[in-house]
Amino acid sequence: HALVVMSVVAASSFSVAAFAPARSLVQHALHWPPRLRSACITRGMGRRRLAMEATNFEEYKTKRALFEPCEPRVGPTAAQTAGSTTTWPNYYCAPDLDRNGRDELLSHDALSAAMSSPDSMFVLVWQGKNLFLPLDGGAYDAVFLDHVQATPFTSDPKSVVIFLGNYEGKRVFGLDVSHLESVTIPSADPPTSHGQKPAFEQLRSLGGLLTDDHDAGLLASARGMAVWHRSTLFCQKCGSGDMKPAKVGTSRACGGCGARVFPRTDPSVIVAVTCADNKHILMGRKEAWPPGRYSTLAGFSEMGESLEECVVREVYEESGVRIARDSIVFSSSQPWPFPRSLMIGFQAAAERTKDDSLPTIKVQIEEMEDVKWFSREEVDAALNGQSELSIPGRASLAYSLITSWTHS
């Protein structure tokens, strides 16, 4: 079967360089005895496939290390960022960013004029990191470049310019410079009072610590698009490596077959599950989390699965608790560009037990270390820093779901 498949490929007019080894192998194998042909080709291609998979995995690990911290710092707990109940827009959203206006910049002259205009601002991204200025007290300012500061990067043909939208009277561009070994920022402002200068950090590590929450949405949009550009190197249609940014960085185009590729977002549900009488909430923890940290259950939707079906499946898989299907209610959503998720929040209730006791939990040990029911009083104590229970920080949708239930 392997010989038949490769013979068809070799005889076709499909001339992708990746198939050259296979065509050469088939041409030599045509002179071998039938039984030897089948055995040698199957084993040889199997070894080649395993070698390629190992190489690709090693490359993936290297790239992932550049884009994500090996040991991500956990953001502040809810007790450290106590405040009013969080509602949409959630952190990393950018409701005031007008994403229209891309088509006005499709010509070379229009784009050049925009990038050299004082009415433009640039969100710099380097190897998956955003630019921040540390401040006194552990807070951070997002650092944006003006058209003058951005010129050394926008004039570099290897930089990726991404139109994000219009914000407060300015055109906003993402600017990925991950191809550079190091980046020197031309600063128009003096260092902070304790000598700190702008530095690249993981947005996920500093979530919730920005002085202006609106900036988080701009940084998230730029970061997500930049990582997508740098990780989408080959055409999904023909396999060509001639992929380049198109339409002001909002898509990528293949120079080989002309196919257009658009950013991908992975939908993931996250759900606040309560017992039937609404007095307890279901939360779990992973082994890698800090001691005492618990959060709402979450998981990615599968192909052909609705979000509501995903809620039912994920909760049962991780906890063994059955959801009352008519109780599922959409709450709010949040972009989570680490690397490309969309968190979709729900509220739901567990099926009522015959004796009105809390439903029995059966933990899926492959994913969760522990799952528990928590009373409203226990969660409220955690929010006020009076418990060893730790709740995710306000940068997460989980915080919004948990606090909304606690204060209801």
- Which regions are unreliable across 5 or more consecutive residues at pLDDT < 50? 1-30, 36-86
Q: Encode the helix/strand succession as letters.
A: HHHHEEEHEEEHEEEEEEHEEEHH
- Separation of the first and last Cα atoms: 63 Å
Major sheet description:
6 strands, mixed
Mean pLDDT: 83
Oligomeric state of the chains in view: single chain
Shape: globular
Strand content: 15-25%
The number of helical segments is 9
Q: Taking Cα atoms only, what radius of gyration do you get, to the nearest Å?
A: 26 Å
Total strands: the figure is 15
- Fraction in helix: 25-40%
Describe the structure.
The protein is α+β, with helices and mostly antiparallel strands and 408 residues long. 29% of the residues lie in helices and 21% in strands. The chain has 9 helices and 15 strands. The protein has helices at residues 2-11, 20-29, 34-67, 108-115, 147-154, 213-231, 307-319, 376-383, 397-406, and strands at 120-126, 129-134, 140-142, 160-167, 170-176, 199-201, 243-246, 251-254, 260-261, 266-274, 280-285, 297-300, 329-336, 341-349, 370-375. A hairpin with a 4-residue loop joins strand 7 (243-246) and strand 8. Helix 1 crosses helix 2 and helix 8 packs across helix 9. The longest helix is centred in the N-terminal third of the chain and has 34 residues, at 34-67. Mean pLDDT is 83; it is low at 1-30 and 36-86.
